[in-house]
Specification:
The protein contains three helices and nine strands, in the order ααββββββββαβ. The protein is α+β, with helices and mostly antiparallel strands. The protein has a five-stranded mixed sheet, with no helix packed on it.
């Protein structure tokens, strides 16, 4: 009788153990499944946290903004600089003597003395090559305008004395009636002008005397302001 009672108890214990193991296995499976679910749900959040929020894009925008702004600034600088250069070029062209061109001073007439009344300068060119000057001059005042046109040196007098105005006219080279290149002692600027002659400093008139010769051409063009 004791043996019969003992065996069912042993069998009952074995069945319980099997049920326990099955429960444990199911629990483990459930826990594993839940763990995977939790891991999967947490992964996007972790990835989202790991990825910088719009930082690269913001950086690119910022960098591009700096580049574009720099580009605009550079372009503006070039434009402004170009504008200043153009303005300076126009001013220089206005205040500097006109360069020898066929339109103002012939380049096919041998040696020519070119007188620019607008800019109050003169030079001598041989063909298209400038061989003297440009140097400053003073032309005729209001009522005594220096005549424009193409002339020729017809008389030279190194120690000329004006019987009309009773004044010395050193290094005179006459090209149109009583109008001549000659030196003066007073400053060329700050005075109303000559009585038609082309006044020069003594050193320039002396140098021009060594350059021009009788029958050389003289081209006078332009207009002196206020004359």
């Amino acid at each position: 009788m004791q043996v019969e009672q003992t065996e069912p108890a042993t069998m009952s214990d074995g069945a319980g153990d099997r049920r326990t193991r099955r429960v444990l296995r199911r629990t483990a499976v459930l826990l594993a499944t839940a763990g995977l679910a939790l891991t999967g749900a947490a992964q996007p959040q972790a990835n989202a946290q790991a990825r910088p929020k719009a930082t690269p894009a913001h950086g690119r925008v910022e960098a591009r903004g700096r580049v574009e702004a720099h580009g605009r600034a550079e372009a503006h600088g070039r434009t402004a600089g170009h504008g200043r250069a153009q303005w300076h070029g126009r001013m220089s062209a206005h205040t500097a003597p006109a360069r020898p061109t066929a339109a103002f001073c012939p380049t096919d007439a041998g040696r020519v003395a070119c007188v620019d009344l607008t800019h109050q300068r003169m030079w001598v060119q041989s063909g298209a090559k400038v061989v003297f000057g440009p140097v400053p001059i003073r032309s005729g005042r209001h009522g005594y305008i220096t005549r424009t046109g193409l002339f020729h040196v017809y008389w030279r007098d190194r120690h000329h004395w004006s019987t009309l105005y009773h004044v010395a006219m050193p290094y005179s080279q006459f090209f149109s009636g009583g109008e001549a290149f000659h030196s003066v002692n007073d400053p060329l600027s700050g005075t109303p002008g000559s009585r038609g002659c082309v006044n020069m400093t003594r050193s320039d008139a002396r140098a021009l005397w060594s350059v021009l010769q009788l029958h050389d051409s003289v081209r006078v063009f332009g207009h002196r302001s206020g004359s």
